[in-house]
Amino acid sequence: MIDLPSACIAGISLHDAPLDHARFTGADLREANFQNATGIYALFGGANLFGSYFTDADLEDADFSDADLSTSVAYKADLEDANFSRATLRKIRLSGATLKFARFGAAVLHEAELSDTVLNGAWMNGAQLRRASMKHADLSDANLEAADLTEADLQSADLRHANLSGAKLVGANLKGVHLGKTRLTNADLTGTGLTRDDLVGAEITGAVGIL
Length: 211
Known about the structure:
There is one protein chain. This protein is largely without helices or strands and 211 residues long. The N and C termini lie far apart (57 Å). It has no helices and no strands.
């Protein structure tokens, strides 16, 4: 098992590497290459992964809590059940990634690219998602309570059964979203252009900004 906590290995290439249960806690892994690697239950907590590459990697149940993954690329990566709690993921590119049941509590994802991702059942409570692109994302059953989605692009996203209670959706693009049984209690929908007719089937008690 690889055990490199706090190591300074920026730019390392671990392409195709077997990394199950590896430990990189607190390591400097800027611009590291994990493309196509397998790292189930790998530990990256508090690591600096700025600009790293995870395209097509299998990182189910990996721990990225408190890590910095800003500008990283993880197209089509399998990150089911991964933990990104309190992580910084500014401008990360995750298009097509599987993030089912992943945890993003209090994570920062401003301007993140999350189009076509599978996020159903994900925990994103309190996440910061300003200007994030989430077009066609599957967010069914996700918990986005108190999340900041200001000016986020959620066009055609699946929000059925999702919890957006207290979420801030000011200026968000919600064109074509699926809102069956979505919880929008006390949410701020100012500038979305949504009417009560658009929200039939959603729970909107206390929501503001509805036309």
